[in-house]
Amino acid sequence: MEPKHKIYIIGAGVSGLIAAYELEQMGYHPIIIEQTAEVGGRVKTIQEKGYALDLGFQVLLSAYPLAKKYLDMDQLQLNKLESGAFIYANNKSYLIGDPLRNWKILIPTLMSDIGSIADKLKILKLNIQLKFKSLDKIFASPEKTTLEYLVECGFSSKIIERFFKPFFTGIFLEPDLSTSSRMFEFVYKMFGEGYATIPELGIGAITKQLQSKLHHTEFMFNCGVKEVTNNQILLQSGETIAHKGVIIASSPASLLPGHKSPTIAWKKCMCLYFEVNQTNIPANTIALIADAGNYTNNLYAYTDAATGKTILSATTVQQKEPSIEKIIEKVIMEVQQYTGASLVHYIQHYEINFALPDIKDIKMTALPSNSKVLENVFVAGDYLFNGSLNAAMESGRLAALGIAETQR
């Protein structure tokens, strides 16, 4: 059978790869144009100084509906993180978790000084409520800030400051819990129904696996796009490509001159990696610094698969120092103060300026036609729905369906 004419996809991140996969299922042979040398976008593992470092500390929530659909979880060799956190507060550390998953955590959780017994019972109540609340109902709920939501649930200021703020600052990449309550409920439900996981070979294994599922897709790497019109793609090199269908799986604003694309605000963060001689952070557990005034929000220690050495990632959301040298110095001091590491060797840092879209009126999905911006041009990206891997996949799926409808 003669293959259908080619559709171009700009961007080889999660959205673009899913769009290509769906188009292949419909008989197309898409072409992905990617400005860098490899797939991944924001979901990438970088080889650096002999280490494999994720582009920012990221986890895969195993309960994401579309992760279950598109990913071979067994092949990814997922490391499950413990359900809970190791919290530093007021010169003490507390281990908290879900005793329904690990009974050994019951006493430490009850005894931890992060909130009252009433607070911990409210957490259990919230777990049960969200277990039975459908995703459709979550995304149809009235929006308020996450902070307002937690206050209305009756949580004390103590547990908000010592648990919810540091934990969800690392997820939402903002310290004030101003993110939509819909997003809070969605993420909280996903944590309750599955696990936070990290592939054995790093978060980039996700996009590498998605790439391996493509058998009729051509890649144009190291190829920047300057402009897209309804029937042409202008490359940075000056070359022009005629097209009958394009999916822009990257920020569309700069590529569509004259078209009013919504301005997307982005949250940023910095992730720093260190080799350390020791750490008091329990295995497979996220550590949170609840004390005010620190640069570091969360810490994660793991054994590097290639070298066998202990690597520590430190994520910062707000940096006040003017130079990266001062930030590194400050974070090293915090790592030594909290984790007990006496030898802290700096490896690398990544400033991620487009880490998460900062959006309101977040959604789970939409009609495929909603992705259309020009007659032959569609868009994809998590910014269309919510800042999650699931949303990136959904946007790619819908863009593929939408553009296929226009080709008939």
Automatic annotation (TrEMBL):
InterPro entries reported in the protein's UniProt record: Amino_oxidase, FAD/NAD-bd_sf
The Amine oxidase domain, residue ranges: 14-400
One matching Pfam family: Amino_oxidase
Regions crossing the membrane: none
Domain of life per record: Bacteria
The protein's name: Protoporphyrinogen/coproporphyrinogen oxidase
